[in-house]
Amino acid sequence: MDGKDHNVEPNHLNPAVFDFDTVIVASFKDLEAVHSWWSSDQVFELMKHRSPLTKMSLHTVDGLVSGFEGTKKRAAMGDKLLLLEISKIESFRPMQRYVDMYKRLATKAHKDIGTVCNLLFAEGISGVLVNEFPVQAVCASCWRTRSDLLSWYEAPNYQQDLMPLRYDFARCFTVAVPMWEDRKGDSSENMKRRGSAAAGMKLRGLQV
């Protein structure tokens, strides 16, 4: 959506801040559940095989809604897209205003733009498990269609009130990603997935 230069390096003098190509969002009941999962033997074994990943970061953030399980019915009938904003903060107070305003505008989105904004979180990072990207604040919302997402992103409130704060006081990468994506791959990739099944079981019942 914006901030591509922070995802794809424009030149060797300006390295990308967020040069990743995969996103996973998972919800946990509380911080204790996060650390229970993170310290489990299954995740420990899985992390031994992270060598194909050039970089990775795992961060926690306080959510605004309860997690939900991914089901075929939800994938067919529910929200389809996640609008994700990831920021490296250059000035704290303006970006605190940003996330506070983001939440306030989201609550009245139905009145302002005629579409409900299902906001998952809009906050500074509360904890770090792996830190290989300078993630300091994140906002995420769910949308049924791309046109609904664009009605939020292109609304005057967003463009005139939120966008200037982001551009002036942070380096941000904003991307729309599918919430439900078909798994594709050859047999060797499937074998790797089966090898990490134990860790995946730890996430059953969570939004991933």
Automatic annotation (TrEMBL):
Originating organism: Symbiodinium pilosum (Dinoflagellate)
Name this polypeptide is given: DUF1330 domain-containing protein
Domain of life: Eukaryota
Residue span of region Disordered: 184-208
